[in-house]
């Protein structure tokens, strides 16, 4: 899925904002405002797909299948102004496909694939073709569920429908007063598809090149960055990002801003959860996301919702596994949800996309030292698979896509202080494929 020559992601800010705000339409998420730079036909982050679709909304482009084509946000490529042109543009394809081509390619696994309805993530699409070919079908871009806990309540979408109308979108009514929202009955008419080149979520990928790096806080309290150089790290390429992190109780690296490169989050000695944006492979300044995290036994970050923006998860003092969605680079108690109880005895908590479906799963090391995998089932977890035993003596265990194949791997620091790498081999890990990346990590306070 990912090309090894993919250019490093950079932030692209959209200057335009919605002019058609209208009345409030329910509990909607923040309008996408950033995208990471993809190339035509190349890998693309979910956050970029959404920002590209929003760009056509912001420009008030109207539906005209036979009219002049419209440029994308870079202005370097044009697409047909209809429903399939919108999705072609959002996915950054090299041509404006038709609905029957989308459906055919997905059914044949040609760069796309058919997925179950409940597997929809931001940037996926839903298509039907009612004439067997030609222009009679329809396609829409999925944004998010109306109710993540009950998919039968329908979904918010980007949709381009008929002559003279601007794009229906999830955040405000268009020029004819239509909001991009589908009922469950409407959704059941569609086949749900995914672009195979959608980039995975970024945990610890500080460089934004598609391969997770390793970060840690050493005994001196220095926040260190070890670039991933060919599935390897070296002290010679390590760089100190900041000092004074020795008192932080939790430190994590994940793409909170949605720009394609991991940011740093940490819980300081006052119990405040702080967000440090990644500014050109450096960090500077912080924002307090929330207070009261001092009593949490574990805090981690990963894109649990699959929308391209890392969320926050943690185990509170009561042993509840809590999920805090990222709502516009912010989290709030009002949107938090309890995923499970009885997690007070776990040793390590991780959120990363182990399954490769674009949304973070949950992994944990329990009191017995067993490494467990909990698949993300529509923003919930149910049941677990045991990946390996013997992790009880590990000082640190974390998950990230170190190999760059869109499936999170397992890394950890063993009792000897060795930093070990366990590749994800078909949703499994094995000692036979494990490799030591570095040594002398026994004194590190945090590793990620």
From TrEMBL:
<dbReference type="Pfam" id="PF13517">
    <property type="entry name" value="FG-GAP_3"/>
</dbReference>
<keyword id="KW-0732">Signal</keyword>
<dbReference type="InterPro" id="IPR013517">
    <property type="entry name" value="FG-GAP"/>
</dbReference>
<protein>
    <submittedName>
        <fullName>VCBS repeat protein</fullName>
    </submittedName>
</protein>
<dbReference type="InterPro" id="IPR028994">
    <property type="entry name" value="Integrin_alpha_N"/>
</dbReference>
């Amino acid at each position: 899925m990912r090309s090894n020559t993919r250019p490093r992601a950079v932030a692209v800010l959209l200057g335009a904002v919605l002019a058609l705000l209208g009345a409030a339409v329910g509990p909607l998420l923040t309008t996408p405002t950033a995208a990471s730079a993809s190339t035509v036909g190349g890998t693309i982050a979910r956050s970029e797909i959404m920002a590209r679709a929003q760009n056509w909304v912001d420009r008030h482009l109207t539906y005209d299948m036979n009219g002049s084509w419209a440029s994308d946000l870079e202005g370097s490529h044009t697409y047909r102004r209809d429903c399939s042109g919108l999705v072609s543009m959002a996915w950054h394809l090299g041509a404006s496909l038709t609905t029957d081509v989308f459906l055919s390619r997905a059914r044949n696994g040609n760069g796309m694939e058919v997925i179950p309805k409940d597997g929809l993530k931001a940037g996926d699409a839903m298509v039907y073709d009612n004439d067997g070919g030609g222009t009679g079908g329809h396609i829409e871009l999925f944004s998010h569920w109306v109710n993540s806990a009950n998919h039968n309540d329908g979904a918010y979408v980007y949709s381009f429908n008929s002559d003279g109308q601007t794009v229906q979108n999830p955040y405000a009514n268009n020029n004819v007063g239509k909001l991009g929202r589908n009922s469950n009955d409407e959704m059941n008419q569609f086949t749900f598809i995914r672009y195979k080149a959608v980039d995975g979520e970024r945990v610890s990928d500080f460089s934004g090149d598609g391969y997770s790096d390793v970060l840690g806080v050493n005994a001196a309290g220095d926040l260190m960055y070890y670039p991933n150089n060919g599935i390897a790290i070296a002290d010679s390429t390590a760089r100190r990002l900041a000092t004074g992190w020795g008192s932080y109780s939790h430190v994590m690296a994940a793409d909170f801003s949605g720009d394609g490169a991991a940011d740093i989050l940490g819980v300081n000695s006052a119990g405040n959860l702080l967000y440090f944006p990644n500014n050109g492979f450096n960090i500077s300044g912080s924002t307090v996301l929330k207070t009261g995290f001092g009593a949490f036994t574990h805090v981690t970050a990963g894109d649990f919702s699959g929308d391209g923006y890392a969320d926050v998860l943690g185990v509170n003092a009561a042993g509840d596994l809590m999920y805090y969605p990222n709502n516009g680079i912010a989290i709030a108690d009002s949107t938090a949800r309890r995923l499970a109880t009885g997690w007070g005895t776990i040793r390590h908590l991780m959120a990363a996309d182990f399954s490769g479906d674009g949304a973070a799963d949950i992994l944990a090391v329990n009191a017995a030292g067993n490494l467990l995998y909990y698949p993300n089932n529509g923003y919930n977890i149910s049941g677990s698979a045991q990946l390996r035993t013997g992790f009880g003596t590990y000082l640190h265990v974390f998950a990230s896509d170190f190999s760059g194949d869109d499936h999170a791997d397992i890394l950890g620091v063993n009792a000897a202080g060795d930093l070990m790498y366990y590749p994800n081999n078909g949703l499994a890990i094995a000692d036979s494929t494990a490799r030591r990346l570095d040594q002398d990590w026994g004194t590190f306070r945090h590793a990620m």
